[in-house]
Structures are given as C-alpha cells and as structure tokens.
Backbone:
C-alpha cells in the first residue's frame, strides 16, 4: 500500500526570505509523525509518510525542508514526546528552570508556556518558584500529572495565538516548537504583538541545534516534523526581524539545543559575542554532510547485517524521534524486533513506519539482547546503569 502523502513546495527561506537555496539532502518515505504511537503493528506500518528535501539558505545559514506540508501535521493526545522520565533529562530541565527563575526573579509570578506538551516543565517552574502557570498544547492529557504544584497551573488544549493575549505573564517559554512551524516569522510576530502590551515580559525559546547535527553527524535528528533547523545566527536573525532584542543566546544540553532569551524591544543582537557560525562556515559543513550521511547509513546497515548473520539479538533504546528515524532510514522493519523506552505511556505501542513493539526495560531480563543500541549518547551512562542492575552482559553502543 502506498501511504506516502503529497507535499507542498516553497523555495523561499522562512527566516530571511532569500531564494538563494541549495538542496543538499533528500530523504524519502519517512513517518510524518515520529512521536505518534500506534496500537498495533499493522497500524504502525500504515503510518502516513512524506519526503524531506533539506535546503540551505546561503544568505542567513538557515536549513529547512522545502517539501514540508503543514497540513499533514495533526497534533493530538496520541502524540507522545515527553523526555521527563529520564533522570538525565530531568536534571537538565530543573537546571534550566532554576536558571530562569534566578535570572528573572520568577517567584510568585505568572508564566506562560507555549507548546507545553504534557506539562512537565511548566510544573517544575511553578513548583520551584511558587508561580502560576498557563500552558498551551493540543496534545495535553488531563489528569496525567500528579504533583502538588498541579493546582498552580492550567493547560489549554489549543495552539497559542493572539486571541490569548489577555493572559498576562512575566515570562513566555516556548521549547521545541519553533522548528515545527512552517512560517516561524509569522508565529514570532504574533507572539511579539501579544506581549508588547505586557511590560517587562521576557521570552525563552529552545530549539534543536543544527550545527550539532552537521558537525557530529546526528542524522537521526532529521525528521519530517522539524521543518526548520536553526543555527545560532539564523535564530538570532529571526528574533531581530520580529522585533525582539536578544539578551542571551547559547547552546545547551551538551550542544544539542539552542537557547535564546529575548525582550520585545527592537535592537541588534551581538552576534560576534555569541560566537555564531558564519553562513560560509555553515556552508562548509553542509557541503560535506550529504556524503557523510550516506556513508554512515551504509556503515550501519552493514553492521546490522553482520549481527543478523551471527544471529545476535539487537534492540534499540529510545522510541523517540531518533529511534524512529534510525529504524525507518535504515529500513529495519525485519532486522530488529523490539524498541526499549523508559516512558511507560509508550509500552505496548508500535513504532511508526517499521512496526517494532515498544517494551519496558525490564523486558530485557527475559529477552537478553546481545547488543543495545542507544539512540542518544547523552543517555549512555543512564542506560548502562539499568543494564548492569539487571545483570545483563549486553554490549551497549551508540549510533
């Protein structure tokens, strides 16, 4: 059955509107939603798919999928991308929340989070600072959070827009949302108009760092849901263009994320102080990326074929976007049977596109895999501790 979706093509850069775009990677037939879980293998194999055609903007250094069709993106309660079950990610989230609270004196204040997911980060901000929170996300599941701070925030199951401008806040957080929006300038302009009525409101945005992907060959971050891939320079550029003054711009989570603080006051960002890659330097990484990408795919396919020839059992650790992308890109529908994840809401569900069953870590006690493939090296120590606790002799590798 052909379940590939049609696409809409636009060649202008969504950050600076330039038409000087170089196409450097094309990936066909990938799941439209990596984080949509399916109740059966048959449903998972029929998951909607689309194509990725990555374009590099020579003018500002932004990267985007020119084949992206926003009409295909349907976010609902079945969408599950929470990372907060990981102690390593919890540590990062609490550290970030503490930094924001201290930098902006966010104690007994009002907080808005756009794209709050299941409410985990908003809960931390309200808990640590005794704050009041309003979250916006259509994928929120009522009743999921059980925490004393829950009474301090409300979540609206809707996308944020200017019609919610009457909600006052001292800070607006928006984490891992901007890369999902086909026209991010329209969105940021809308946010800026909403908060100019509120004196002193700061915004904090967080997005994946495409330079990490290019430099360290993090190819599993190339997913259909992410229509935009920001560099420090393109992120600063778009905030400047939308009437914000950037006050802080750094990478985070060991270089995997970009973090930006800004105020709705026009003013030039200090790009040199932020050590931004120039478009020319980014272009050098882009030009080498396609060959490196194809070589890595072939290398991993050969590795997995050797394991299969030796009749070794292999599992993937991580049923998020990286794991789903790895399985679909390498066409591993039949070579790997199970995917492990610590998020209990994923257990018993199936991976979009390739149909592997998602299991809890305890399942490995009986399955006893020869090799565990970790999809994100930042979690290696965490995974290793779980494997050792279960007294397994499985080899742990990262791809």
Residues:
């Amino acid at each position: 059955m052909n379940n590939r979706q049609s696409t809409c093509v636009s060649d202008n850069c969504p950050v600076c509107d330039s038409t000087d775009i170089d196409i450097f990677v094309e990936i066909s037939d990938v799941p439209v939603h990596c984080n949509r879980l399916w109740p059966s293998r048959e449903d998972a194999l029929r998951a909607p798919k689309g194509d990725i055609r990555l374009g590099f903007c020579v003018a500002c250094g932004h990267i985007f999928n020119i084949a992206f069709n926003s009409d295909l993106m349907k976010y609902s309660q079945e969408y599950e991308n929470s990372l907060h079950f990981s102690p390593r990610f919890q540590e990062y989230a609490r550290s970030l929340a503490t930094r924001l609270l201290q930098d902006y004196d966010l104690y007994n204040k009002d907080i808005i989070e756009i794209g709050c997911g299941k409410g985990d980060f908003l809960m931390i901000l309200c808990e640590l600072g005794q704050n009041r929170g309003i979250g916006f996300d259509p994928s929120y599941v009522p009743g999921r959070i059980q925490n004393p701070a829950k009474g301090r925030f409300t979540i609206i199951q809707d996308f944020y827009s200017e019609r919610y401008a009457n909600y006052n806040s001292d800070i607006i957080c928006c984490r891992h949302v901007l890369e999902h929006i086909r026209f991010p300038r329209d969105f940021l302009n809308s946010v800026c108009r909403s908060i100019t009525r509120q004196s002193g409101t700061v915004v904090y945005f967080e997005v994946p760092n495409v330079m990490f992907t290019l430099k360290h060959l993090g190819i599993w971050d190339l997913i259909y849901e992410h229509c935009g891939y920001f560099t420090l320079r393109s992120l600063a550029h778009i905030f400047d263009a939308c009437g914000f003054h950037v006050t802080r711009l750094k990478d985070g989570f060991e270089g995997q994320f970009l973090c930006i603080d800004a105020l709705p006051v026009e003013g030039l960002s200090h790009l040199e102080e932020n050590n931004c890659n120039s478009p020319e330097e980014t272009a050098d990484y882009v030009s080498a990326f396609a060959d490196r990408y194809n070589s890595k795919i072939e290398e991993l396919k050969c590795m997995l074929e050797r394991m299969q020839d030796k009749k070794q059992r292999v599992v993937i650790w991580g049923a998020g976007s990286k794991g789903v992308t790895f399985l679909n890109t390498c066409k591993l529908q039949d070579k790997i049977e199970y995917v492990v994840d610590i998020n209990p809401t994923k257990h018993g569900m199936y991976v979009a596109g390739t149909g592997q069953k998602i299991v809890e870590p305890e399942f490995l006690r009986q399955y006893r895999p020869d090799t565990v493939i970790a999809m994100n090296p930042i979690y290696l120590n965490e995974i290793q501790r779980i494997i050792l606790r279960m007294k397994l002799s499985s080899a742990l590798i990262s791809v």
User: Anything to note?
Assistant: The first helix runs from residue 41 to 45. Residues 1-9 have pLDDT under 50 and may be disordered. The domain at 306-398 is CATH 3.40.50.720 (Rossmann fold). The radius of gyration is 21 Å.
